[in-house]
């Protein structure tokens, strides 16, 4: 598990391209028969990917957590962005097709991941946050999610937000998680951009081709920077940073948040007059 520290916006404005990428970009999450994990000190969020091809993979605590199991003091959200696969937790087995979500509550045994077809491996993206009580583990399909339609084709940002783990959906201690799908011809996400001082966020991009890129925008609203992002890469967004972007085509992204509250609407839209 790679460890990353928190950063201060006063320092971040002096970062060059490499440093920005080292701190905020998670460039490799889906590697065959591996579980990739990044522990960020920003709200202690763990971002990970599991890509089982020829073997079953187990998510274990490892040394960094000093815990008896990964979920001893944590909760976990999993969304599959690949072929269908299985998540085994104790004597329960959950089948996850593309874009289905599984919430695992505190206290669950170490989950194992497998693919139904090694030619079309499952790609389990996951985000975990500290948890202080048990909530039931729940699988949700896209139909179970709360769908919010936003944007328009005129502004190249027609998209649908699917909220899975959130205040009015699957309950959790602090994790809020879902995904957004852009319509064909729409390339902009989360514009006008916003910040939320009470929560950090992680964006994970998917449904991009090899030759596609998203110019992910970050930074304080009056000190914006960009990170060039490929398919299946993620970007950490501290609470002081905007998180937005434009791609070379339409795409999807999984967003996950942790922090002080779970109020999705507790965000501050950027006044475009102060946006630089
Ligand atoms: O705080 C909320 C998150 O940034 C995302 O849910 C926003 C988003 O998916 C979108 O505008 O498309
Ligand atoms: Zn946000």
UniProtKB/TrEMBL annotation:
Zn(2+) binds at residues 194, 196, 201, 243. Its cofactor is Zn(2+). Pathway: Glycan metabolism; pectin degradation; 2-dehydro-3-deoxy-D-gluconate from pectin: step 4/5. Binds 1 zinc ion per subunit. Signal peptide: none annotated. Keywords: Isomerase, Metal-binding, Zinc. The keyword Transmembrane helix does not apply. The keyword Zinc applies. CDD domains: cupin_KduI_C, cupin_KduI_N. Gene3D superfamilies: Jelly Rolls (2.60.120.10), pectin degrading enzyme 5-keto 4- deoxyuronate isomerase, domain 1 (2.60.120.520). It is an enzyme of class 5 (isomerase). InterPro entries: KduI (IPR007045), KduI/IolB_isomerase (IPR021120), KduI_N (IPR027449), RmlC-like_jellyroll (IPR014710), RmlC_Cupin_sf (IPR011051). Its EC number is 5.3.1.17. It catalyses: 5-dehydro-4-deoxy-D-glucuronate = 3-deoxy-D-glycero-2,5-hexodiulosonate. GO terms for molecular function: 4-deoxy-L-threo-5-hexosulose-uronate ketol-isomerase activity. Pfam families: KduI (PF04962). PANTHER family: 4-DEOXY-L-THREO-5-HEXOSULOSE-URONATE KETOL-ISOMERASE. Belongs to the KduI family. Catalyzes the isomerization of 5-dehydro-4-deoxy-D-glucuronate to 3-deoxy-D-glycero-2,5-hexodiulosonate. This is 4-deoxy-L-threo-5-hexosulose-uronate ketol-isomerase. It comes from Glaciecola petra. The lineage of its organism: Bacteria, Pseudomonadati, Pseudomonadota, Gammaproteobacteria, Alteromonadales. The gene is kduI.
């Amino acid at each position: 598990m790679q460890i990353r520290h928190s950063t201060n916006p006063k320092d971040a404005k002096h970062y060059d391209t490499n440093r920005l990428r080292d701190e905020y970009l998670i460039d490799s999450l889906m590697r065959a028969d591996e579980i990739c994990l990044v522990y960020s000190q920003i709200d202690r969020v763990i971002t990970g990917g599991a890509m089982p091809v020829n073997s079953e993979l187990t998510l274990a605590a490892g040394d960094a957590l000093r815990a008896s199991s990964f979920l001893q003091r944590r909760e976990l959200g999993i969304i599959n962005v690949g072929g269908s696969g299985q998540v085994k937790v104790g004597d329960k087995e959950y089948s996850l097709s593309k874009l289905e979500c599984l919430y695992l509550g505190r206290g669950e045994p170490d989950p194992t991941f497998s693919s139904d077809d090694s030619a079309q491996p499952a790609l389990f993206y996951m985000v975990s946050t500290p948890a202080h009580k048990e909530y039931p583990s729940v699988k949700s399909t896209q139909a179970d999610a709360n769908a919010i339609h936003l944007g328009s084709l005129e502004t190249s940002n027609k998209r649908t937000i699917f909220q899975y783990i959130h205040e009015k959906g699957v309950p959790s201690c602090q994790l809020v998680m879902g995904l957004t799908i852009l319509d064909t011809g729409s390339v902009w996400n989360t514009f006008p951009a916003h910040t939320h001082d009470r929560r950090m966020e992680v964006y994970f991009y998917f449904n991009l081709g090899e030759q596609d890129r998203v110019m992910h925008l970050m930074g304080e609203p009056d000190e914006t920077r960009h990170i060039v992002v490929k398919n299946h890469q993620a970007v950490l967004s501290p609470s002081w940073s905007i998180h937005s972007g434009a791609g070379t085509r339409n795409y999807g992204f999984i967003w996950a948040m942790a922090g002080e509250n779970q109020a999705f609407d507790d965000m501050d839209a950027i006044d475009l007059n102060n946006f630089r």
